[in-house]
Amino acid sequence: MIELLAPAGNLERLKIAYLYGADAVYIGGYNYSLRANAINFSLAELKEAVSFAHNLQKKIYVTVNIVLHNKEIEGLVPYLQELASIGVDAVILSDIAVVKAITKNKINLEIHLSTQASTLNYEAALFYKKLGVKRIVLAREASREDIKIIKEKTSLDLEAFIQGAMCTSFSGKCVLSNVTTNRDSNRGGCAQICRWTFKINDEKNVFSMTPKDLNMSRYLEDMMNIGINSFKVEGRMRSIYYIATVVYEYRKLIDKILNSTITESDILYSNDIINRCANRESTPQFYDKLPTHNEQYYLGREEISNQDFLGLVLETIDNKTLIEERNFFKKGDEVEFFGPNIEPISYKINKIYNENMEEIEVARHPQMKVYLEVPTKLPNGSMMRLKVFDKKDYL
Amino acid sequence: MTKNNILLLVQDLNLVSSLKKENAITFLFPIKDYAIGFPKTFSIDEIKEEAFIFVNRIMDNETIASFKSFLNELPPHIKGIVFDDLGVLNILIEHPHNLTKILFLNHLNCNYESINAYLEYVDSVVVSPDLTFTEIDEILLKSHKPLVLYTFGHVNIMYSRRTLLTNYNAHFNLKVPNQATLEEEITKQKLKIIENPYGTVIYTARPFNALSLRAKPNVLYNLINTVFLTNEEVKEILTSEDNLETKYPYKYLSMKNTIVKIKEEEK
């Protein structure tokens, strides 16, 4: 069983991730979780999330992956007991204090070791295995050969990132944010100093260490063959559009690999869709070689935002599709719908109606609700995007 | 003031020669191919006196395999090891050694529970320098064994597997040396950067002065990192009775709790 594991920073994103094909979702509580500035989940929301996941026979993992300071020790055991009692399927952790809290108190939680632990060799993996770790989220620096050997020598479940932002540093080995801004990188406050720019010696060209993103769409099959059990998408701070797009494309690729129908055009097409949505260029990073200057940016942040996400399908009423607008669109635009369990549907907008069913020319206000005459009944939660790529061009 | 013993992370054999009669100093040598972030690393053949070795690379499978052989061939005057990778710990558990084993899981040993958990496997742990002095005091109080405190020196604040200076040179066709100074463009904060074939390390531009920790109880060693310091500076630090706070005022992260949630900070 190959798992597609998606991030979610709140309940809406979690539901989208499952609907678009994630087998499992990882989330954070209010405390003990990196991405402290994501919205994150209260205990009541965690319960709702677990219930939602399990009703779909899917899994849910909770991050308890900060580096704990003394003051965080006190509430740790009750928090873990609470997570166990509401039925989360595993916790993702990096601090041995959390491992010991679980094992010593016999708390019924499966342990996944976070990438924060930067596991890059089988000896380290074996140490964690003895502690009771069931799965290791590998260091992002792990090469194909590293992964293969760790699998062969440990038989542990292995999880690897396939998509998303990269740290410049080994995870957990950077406190640039603490030093520069007093925001604690290993407790969820990272200010991403590695995406800032620096003067170096007397050089005129600015120095930057900004990495491009990770994208492993081309290597999924190879990763399956060398023993990866779970494909992880980074990004608990990401939008519903990003999560839907990325999960949707990777779901398709994984399924096509599993039923032996994958083609080069599938990979190229999905790659273009994912890259456009990700706003940054992406590469396989450490998987096939040591990253060079080609895997970095040199002007600090180089993010290209777009307004491709046009609207969210709320429901279909009397053959009209109710859309909640996200970005400007108008009559005559060529758009595309994608959604849970449907192939992308191209559509030229011929008429737009406002909520009073009056015909209008444009939808210009985010969150405004409009009706379109889409000939196909779309699943609720489908998304409408600008049509940029046409699968036919890849055949 | 009764001072604790010193673990001196060295860069210069001349300094070692001039200090080797000092009983309270244990020399710690960063080891060639297994240490990162140093202008100078040492082969075992270069180490002539009783000493500890410093091994702070995060190792891939190939490196950990070669390290295993290296460990088996250590001469008897190597008395201890300070290491970061838990693969090294696993090797030391599986193949017991007489070495004094000290874990320096940089940035990650930040609470007494974690430290006590690792103390089940090692002789001591280097307490993360990223803590406040108040947090360190509580850890010392609750630790099951004497600990090592980062007491003076530039602090390694970022370790990347990427060869960031080589990449920069390749991109702009430049020849910046493998050791340089960075200045962040907004805050003007300076940092030191150093690269070797195994990656890149960024250090604080100024040395962290925690000499006030020299007389703390439950301490096995006070660690002094000599990287970027002159021999004269090191000798002054070692011999000074006062804490040299005028000359070295930088307190790193020791005086103020870091911010975890921005929204809470704004309230």
What does this 3D model show about the protein?
The complex is a heterodimer of chains A (395) and B (267). Chain A has helices at 11-19, 43-55, 70-73, 76-86, 96-104, 122-131, 144-154, 176-181, 220-225, 240-258, 264-278; strands at residues 3-7, 24-28, 59-64, 90-93, 111-113, 135-137, 157-164, 198-200, 213-215, 230-233, 282-283, 309-317, 320-325, 329-330, 334-339, 342-348, 352-353, 359-360, 362-363, 369-372, 383-386. Chain A is α/β, with parallel strands linked by helices and 395 residues long. Chain A folds into two domains: 3-171 and 209-295, Copper homeostasis (CutC) domain (TIM Barrel, Alpha-Beta Barrel), CATH 3.20.20.380; 309-394, Translation factors (Elongation Factor Tu (Ef-tu), domain 3), CATH 2.40.30.10. In chain A, strands 1-2-3-4-5-6-7-10 form an eight-stranded parallel β-barrel, surrounded by five helices. In chain A, strands 16-15-21-12-13-20-17-18 form an eight-stranded antiparallel sheet, covered by helices on one side. In chain A, strand 2 (24-28), helix 2 (43-55) and strand 3 form a beta-alpha-beta unit. The model of chain A has no long low-confidence stretch (mean pLDDT 94). The longest helix of chain B is centred in the N-terminal third of the chain and has 12 residues, at 61-72. Chain B has one domain: Phosphoenolpyruvate-binding domains (TIM Barrel, Alpha-Beta Barrel). Chain B has helices at residues 13-19, 61-72, 86-94, 112-118, 133-142, 164-172, 231-239, 262-266, and strands spanning 6-9, 25-30, 51-55, 78-83, 100-103, 124-127, 147-153, 156-160, 179-184, 190-196, 199-204, 208-209, 219-225. Chain B has an eight-stranded parallel β-barrel with strand order 1-2-3-4-5-6-7-13. Chain B has a four-stranded antiparallel sheet with strand order 8-11-10-9, with helices on one face. Chain B contains eight helices and 13 strands. The mean pLDDT of chain B is 94. In chain B, 50% of the residues are buried. Chain B has 267 residues and is an alpha/beta fold. In chain B, 25% of the residues lie in helices and 26% in strands.
